[in-house]
C-alpha cells in the first residue's frame, strides 16, 4: 500500500516546524507542486487548520528535542508513503540580546531546538535516504549563520553550527547520492520577530545600548516590515529541490546577498593585512 501511495506524488517531503511561518509556507508550496508532505510540529491541530486534509498531507506530532518522537514521526511517514525524498529542517527560534545579556537557560533551550533537534531529525531520516541512494536534506539557517551581528550573537552561533553540520553532511552524503543544502534567508516578513518565535533577553546592560540595544529597537520597528516575501521564499525552496545539481548554500534576499559580499570583502582585507604574521607560524624549511 505504501508503495502504491508514494508513486502518486512527485516527491515525499518531511518538514519540521510546519505549523506556522516559513515551515507552513514551504509545506503549502510543496503540496501545490504535487508532492506529499509530512508536516511535523508540536501543534498538530494548527497544522490541520492551516493546511487542511489534502490526500498528500500527513500531520505528525514532533518536538524535535525528543529523539524518540523524531524516530516515530519518520516511521509514520514511511508507513504512509514508503519513503522520504526531502527533509526540511526548519524548526527553531531566535534569541535577541547581547551575548553577556543572554541567560544560560535561554541559550541551552535554543541549542536544544536549533542544533540538537536538527541533529535528532536528520539522524532519523538519513538511513532512509542512504538506503535509497537519493534524497535532499535542506537545513534552514539564516544570514546570521554566515555573518554574526550584535544582538543576535548566540542565535547566530546556533546557525553557525547548522552551517558547519551542513558542510560536513554535504561532503559525507554526496558520494551516496544525497544532496545537502543550507538556506540562508535574510529578513522575511514572517512572525520571526514576534514573541512566539523570538526570545528577548530580559537582562539589559547599559554598556551595550549602542550595539545590541540599538538592534532591540530596530527589531521592533522592522517587525512585519521586513523586505523579504516569505511566499517567494517557499517557492524558491521548491525550485531548489528541482535543481539537478543544487548548491551547498542558497542565500535568499538582497539583504543577505549584500551582507555576504560585505563579510567576504572584510575577511579578504583582514587576511591580506595579517598575511605575513599568519604565514610566519609554519616550521622553517
Note the main attributes of this structure.
two-stranded parallel ribbon, disordered N terminus, seven-stranded parallel beta sheet, 10 helices, Rossmann fold
Word description of this protein:
The chain is of the alpha/beta class and 285 residues long. It has a single domain, classed as 3-Layer(aba) Sandwich (Rossmann fold). It has ten helices and nine strands. The protein has helices at residues 2-6, 21-32, 44-51, 67-81, 104-132, 153-173, 209-222, 230-242, 254-273, 275-279, and strands spanning 12-16, 36-41, 57-61, 86-89, 94-96, 135-140, 178-185, 198-200, 249-252. The strands form two sheets. It has a seven-stranded parallel β-sheet, with helices on both faces. A two-stranded parallel ribbon has the order 5-8. Strand 1 (12-16), helix 2 (21-32) and strand 2 (36-41) form a beta-alpha-beta unit. Helix 5 runs parallel beside helix 6. The longest helix is centred in the middle third of the chain and has 29 residues, at 104-132. Residues 1-6 have low confidence and may be disordered.
Tell me what the CATH architecture is. 3-Layer(aba) Sandwich
Q: Number of helical runs?
A: 10
Largest sheet: 7 strands, parallel
CATH top level is: Alpha Beta
Report helical residue fraction.
40-55%
Q: How widely separated are the two ends?
A: 67 Å
Which structural class do you get from the secondary structure elements?
alpha/beta
- Using only C-alpha atoms, the radius of gyration works out to 20 Å
Overall shape: it is globular
Mean pLDDT: 91
Q: What is the third-level CATH name, the topology?
A: Rossmann fold
* Beta-strand residue percentage: 15-25%
- The succession of helices and strands, N to C, reads HEHEHEHEEHEHEEHHEHH
Query: How many structural domains does the protein architecture include?
Result: 1
**DSSP summary, beta strand count:** 9
Uncertain residue ranges: 1-6
Cross-sheet strand order for the largest sheet:
3-2-1-4-6-7-9
Q: Name the CATH homologous superfamily.
A: NAD(P)-binding Rossmann-like Domain
